[in-house]
Structure formats: C-alpha cells, structure tokens
Specification:
This protein has 14 helices and no strands. The radius of gyration is 19 Å and the shape is globular. Helices cover about 80% and strands about 0% of the residues. Helix 2 runs antiparallel to helix 9, helix 2 packs across helix 10 and helix 6 runs antiparallel to helix 13. It is mostly helical. It has one domain. The longest helix has 29 residues.
C-alpha cells in the first residue's frame, strides 16, 4: 500500500473509533431511537449530496429498494440501535472491543453457507481465541460495573455482539445482492431506506423532545452523522476501490485502540488490564483466522486485492 492509502486507513480508524465516544456523549441526553434517527437522517442527506454531485443516482427499481430496506434494517437500524442502547450501560471502549468481533462472525457465517469457506487449522484457533478474548474483556469489566449494568447483567454486551452479527450478515448479503453496483450507490440507498424506517420509529417512541439537548450532545450527534457515518462510508468505499476489500478490512484492528484512547482521555473511562488483554486476544484471533496460516480464503482475497490495485 502507498503512504496515501495507509494514511486514509488510519484516518478511517480514527473516525470510526471516535463514533463510540460520540454515541456515548449523545445518548447521555437523547433516547437511543432519537439519536439513531438523527444520525441516519443527516448521514443520508450528506451521502445523497455526494452521490448526485458525482453524477450517480439511485435506482427506481422496486426490487432494488426492497433490498435497500432489508439491508438498511439489518445493517444500519438494528446495529445502531443496539450499540446506542448498550452504551448507556457500558464503556465506549468496551463497545468497540465487542464490535471488533464482526470479522469472526463473518468467517463463521461464510463457513456455514459456503462449501468453499471451511474452518480448520489456524482459522478455527483464531475464531476460538477471538471469542475467548471477549470473555476476558467482558468478565473483568462486569466485576467493575455499576448498579444499572449489574441489573442488566450481560445484556448490553450481548447487544453489541448481536450488532456485530448484523454487520457480518449485511456484509455477506450485500456482496451478492449488489454485485457490480457502485459501492456509493449501495451505501446511499441503504442509508436513505434506514432514515425512512427510523424517523417514524423515533417519533412514535419518543415524540418531539420537551427540552432541547445541550450543545455538547447536539454537536456529538452532528459529528457522528457527518464524519462517523456519511464520510466514513465514503472513505471506506474509496479505499475498497483502490486497495481491495481485504486490505480495507484491516481497519478492524484500529477501531478499538482509538476508541479506548478517546474514552480514557475525554470521558475518563478506565482502561483495565482485562480490556487490554481481551482486545489483544480478539485482534490476534482475527489475525490468525484471516491471515497467519489460514489457507485459501486469505490467499484468494490477497490476489484479488492485488489485481484490483494493479488495475487502478
């Protein structure tokens, strides 16, 4: 990868890692449904502007929009709601660690659905090690949880992992459903569909706010929508078109460290030894499952990424 691509990857990690911090700030004053609706609506407007400014447009095909709504529900509405709800009770850094299990779920789903993607050897070790890391991180944090979190037990943690599973399902399905479609069109269509789903949901669940949230909360939601959602999607697809999906997926390794640092510096969230050990095990598990000694899947993706880079 060129220095420009490495810089873009680091920027994406910094931006997406900051999303967990911004969610934590916003949900301290806004209900999860309202925060998610605002986040998605603003992001949809930004992406629509970028899409049409680039001369692209959304399809009017009803079947395409049915898929947009399905992916918008599974890939945006559900995970955003789950993570936002969970961050009322767990640290933003912990949410990022749990969210990093997305590649592990992707491997398990691919192995279950495809004869070509079988787990074995290092891949099985990597998946198992990744989930052991989750147990280590969550087990230590649970001991230090406050009263609200103790009443809910592990539900907030499981909520974030369910969100990671939603991301994995979306990633696998979107590749098939939108093969050959410009990635920005796919992202914008999903975001618009998600906005149409979440806006009435937020109004029904919470109505209009009786009092205005603070400037701090509103700025956090605006930054989350513009940078952590819309522009992050633009950047990730820019990278995928230039260095391939596999290399772009390395951002997974960057999100939790950024999120832990942001939470510690700006929210005074403690970085426990258990969280660090758990994070290290999760990332090592992803590395082993996708790379070190991991067989044909990694090799095919590397070759595809190389061909993609060479064609640019």
């Amino acid at each position: 990868m060129s220095l420009r691509h490495v810089a873009a990857l680091l920027l994406l990690g910094a931006v997406w890692g900051g999303s967990f911090l911004l969610i934590k700030i916003g949900v301290s004053e806004l209900p999860p449904e309202t925060l998610v609706a605002l986040r998605i609506a603003v992001a949809a407007l930004v992406l629509l502007g970028v899409l049409y400014a680039g001369g692209q447009h959304l399809s009017a095909n009803p079947r395409t929009w049915l898929t947009f709504f399905l992916l918008g529900l599974i890939g945006l509405v559900l995970p955003y709601l789950l993570i936002t709800w969970a961050e009322q009770f767990i640290a933003s850094g912990m949410a990022a660690i749990l969210n990093a299990t997305t590649p592990l779920f992707s491997l398990l789903l691919a192995a279950a659905l495809s004869r070509d993607e079988q787990l074995g050897g290092w891949r099985s070790v990597g998946v198992a090690l990744g989930f052991v890391g989750v147990l280590v991180a969550v087990g230590v944090e649970s001991l230090a949880s406050g009263p609200a979190a103790s009443r809910l037990g592990l539900l907030p943690h499981l909520g974030v992992m369910l969100a990671a599973l939603c991301y994995a399902i979306t990633g696998l399905y979107a590749r098939r459903a939108f093969a050959g479609t410009p990635p920005l069109v796919t992202a914008t269509g999903q975001m618009v569909a998600a906005a149409l789903l979440t806006t009435p949901l937020a109004l029904v669940a919470n109505g209009l706010p009786a009092t205005m949230p603070s400037a701090r909360a509103l700025i956090a939601v605006l930054l989350l929508a513009v940078f952590g959602t819309a522009l992050a999607y633009v950047l990730v697809y820019w990278l995928m078109e230039r260095i391939g999906a596999t290399r772009t997926s390395m951002v997974t390794y960057l999100l939790p460290p950024f999120a832990l640092v942001y939470g510690a510096l700006l929210l005074q969230e403690p970085i426990t030894a258990g969280a660090l050990v758990g994070l290290a095990l999760v990332l090592l598990g992803i590395l082993l499952a996708n790379g070190a000694g991991a067989g044909s899947w990694w090799q095919r993706e590397r070759r595809a990424a190389t061909r993609s880079s060479a064609s640019k």
